[in-house]
Design brief:
about 650 residues; six-stranded mixed sheet; globular; binds 4-O-methyl-beta-D-glucopyranuronic acid
Length: about 650
């Protein structure tokens, strides 16, 4: 096998109960069968013998039931009975989730927690693959695609393991191709590939997962002889209707389309002076007869900006492009909104669209792939960031209108909402480049299922399941510190960017400063930061009260976002009493020291880890240290040269 089993690596357990050896199944269906299979496979590995499966009720052993009156869609209930355990699912998926939960409890020795109920709290829990059919992955940091190679679609043992991994963390929707839909991928929804796509869909369905594809808005022009793809052109709409009909004839369970339009060179309705609602609704009507949905991305901004233009603010773009369309989208359209207004930086405020849209289905998009957070070389556990985003109060309907309430569907009574994440997997042996980066993959699903779990408890769970209980404490500690460490040695106080253009790994302070992407830090000899108050770009006004007042006020603005919202002089004092320039120096020295401490800690774990995991991660950590040093020195030197201010502590800053 050329892949690791990750968190589904079922190791022998100590407390084997007699009850584990019988599985009585009182329900049926393809997803239930996957649950049965998983149970058997796990028990074989954990206890050494295959359990007996009986298809009738039994007093003894583990029993599976389906009871649609159970509360919570796809929920489950686990109970201890006199001579065993029961797993009851509200649906087939509920049974499957219940079995995965039971296995987790057995492995982490938490059966005492029973009885226990659970239900996915977000209706849609989506993985977005940025895989291309040539085998490459856009922003992939762990090898090539395991879906495609040379324009062929694979189906193998690894794909099956992948489906199990996704189901085990509650994923129920997977988009199998990059949002940048290139020439060949445009054919994914045609007979050229549909039969192969169907094989994936069938596999996913066995695990309660629906398959989606990203589509090319200009498909009628590329696949047929259209000279336009105007969404209000009836022939264009008919073409899509026919295309959808054909897809659903072949794959009745097909989920729908994901669309990146009018963004970074992709075609879209703007070309025809149409709105994004025109574009999304046209596609939505094509899939509506079959229960399909259209997920439309809000990552729309001007990527041809002139750096001399200080009035245009990329941060404003998503809101400005979509706010007036609130209420104009069909019921089966969902807007997918990136967590921040820019693009997956290590620190950003929450997108103001969440507080703005009230009559539109919304999905929160996060990036598990660590494009700007260390590319799975550097350790950066992202759950604490996502937790903060979900807990952000938008004040859309008064206090307590958190992003979490919106994406759970609670605030506006929606059921097409949830989270989507750009996945970080590839065909590397360990799936994620850095073994520890799988904590983000795992954690994303667990958080979307049950957002009341803390990032720390998820880290513990992942560590115990993947690396063993012996290292749960220290590895959890490393994971929990890692985001802050990464933030310290990279760009300061929410300003973002300063990365090597295009690759986005490693420092290049002015790399994007005079470019067209709208990502500027505006550093000069006196200070740096972007004024986004009403006196500047006015971005702060996109939020509901009280945020505009807080963000626009230099004193009240959360300090970690200070340079995102304000231009600040190097000699201005921060809350800590330090000047801005001293804060920059200190955090950059600290960041490197923290990486060194982490490496020491990892070294100490060598006896408790398998040699290959230890070595693989150590190799990454050494690269991380080199990266952190490079960042520290470039940032410190850059701002030393600009400001001329010496480090109070007299440490080495290169001239
Ligand atoms: O951050 C940018 C990435 C692009 C990506 C784009 C997007 C898929 O650098 O690679 O394209 O975001 O989210 O569409």
């Amino acid at each position: 096998m050329n892949f690791s089993k990750c968190w589904l690596d079922y190791q022998p357990i100590k407390n084997v109960e007699k009850a584990f050896s019988t599985l009585s199944v009182s329900c049926s269906g393809t997803v239930v069968e996957s649950a049965v299979q998983e149970y058997c496979l796990a028990m074989k590995a954990m206890t050494g013998s295959e359990p007996e499966v009986v298809r009738t009720e039994s007093e003894e052993g583990v029993s599976l039931y389906l009871d649609s009156s159970l509360s919570g869609k796809d929920g489950y209930e686990l109970r201890k009975k006199e001579k065993g355990y029961t797993v009851t699912g509200q649906s087939e998926s509920g049974v499957l989730y219940g079995v995965f939960e039971l296995l987790r409890l057995i492995r982490t020795e938490k059966l005492a927690d029973l009885p226990l109920t659970g239900a996915p709290e977000m209706p849609l829990r989506i993985m977005n693959h940025w895989d291309n059919m040539d085998g490459s992955i856009e922003r992939g940091y762990s090898g090539n695609s395991f879906f495609y190679k040379d324009y062929e679609i694979f189906y193998n043992e690894r794909t099956e393991q992948y489906a199990r991994m996704m189901a085990s963390i509650g994923i129920n929707a997977i988009v199998i191709n990059n949002v940048n839909v290139h020439e060949k991928e445009t054919y994914l929804i045609t007979d050229t590939y549909l039969q192969r796509v169907k094989k994936y869909s069938d596999l996913f369905c066995r695990y309660g997962i629906r398959l989606y594809t990203s589509v090319n808005f200009a498909a009628p022009m590329e696949l047929a002889d259209f000279d336009n793809c105007d969404p209000l052109n009836p022939q264009v709409a008919d073409w899509w209707k026919e295309a959808a009909k054909h897809i659903y004839e072949c794959i009745p369970e097909f989920g729908g389309f994901l669309v990146k339009a009018d963004s970074e060179g992709r075609p879209g309705p703007f070309t025809y002076d149409r709105t994004h609602a025109d574009g999304a609704n046209m596609l939505a009507r094509a899939v509506a007869p079959y229960g399909g949905i259209v997920i439309w991305r809000c990552f729309v901004y001007n990527c041809g900006q002139d750096w001399r233009d200080t009035k245009t603010d990329r941060a404003r773009a998503a809101y400005d492009n979509f706010i007036d369309l609130d209420g104009c989208f069909d019921d089966n359209v969902i807007l997918q909104i990136k967590n921040g207004p820019m693009d997956f930086q290590v620190r950003e405020p929450v997108s103001p669209l969440f507080g703005g849209l009230k009559k539109t289905n919304m999905i929160l998009e996060v990036q598990i792939a660590q494009e700007y957070t260390g590319q799975q070389i550097d350790l950066c556990y992202l759950l604490p960031m996502w937790r903060e985003i979900l807990d952000f109060d938008t004040y859309a309907e008064g206090e307590g209108s958190t992003v979490l309430k919106i994406v759970k569907g609670e605030l506006y009574g929606q059921n097409l909402c949830g989270m989507a994440a750009v996945i970080n997997t590839g065909d590397d042996y360990n799936w994620t480049g850095n073994d520890l980066a799988a904590a983000n993959t795992y954690g994303y699903g667990r958080l979307a299922m049950n957002p009341s779990q803390s990032p720390e408890s998820i880290a513990r769970e992942w560590t115990a399941l993947t690396l063993g209980a012996r290292v749960e404490e220290p590895v959890t500690d490393m994971l929990m510190k890692s985001w802050s460490t990464y933030e310290k040695y990279t760009s300061p106080l929410g300003i973002g960017w300063m990365v090597t253009p295009h690759y986005h790994y490693g420092p290049d302070v002015d790399g994007y400063e005079y470019d067209r992407w709208g990502t500027y830090h505006r550093a000069d000899r006196n200070g740096l930061g972007v004024d986004r108050t009403p006196a500047g770009t006015g971005y702060t006004s996109q939020y509901n009260e009280p945020w505009p007042g807080i963000y626009a006020d230099r004193e009240k603005c959360p300090e970690e976002l200070l340079l995102f919202f304000h231009y600040v002089r190097y000699d201005e004092k921060l809350k800590s009493g330090k000047t801005l320039i001293q804060h920059i120096y200190d955090t950059h020295f600290e960041g490197v020291e923290e990486v060194e401490a982490m490496i020491e800690a990892w070294r100490g774990l060598a006896p408790k880890l398998s040699a290959d995991v230890y070595e693989r991660v150590m190799e990454r950590m050494e690269r991380q240290l080199a990266n952190a040093i490079e960042w520290r020195d470039r940032i410190n030197t850059y701002f030393y040269r600009k400001s001329g201010a010496a480090d109070e502590k007299g440490r080495k800053i290169y001239e």
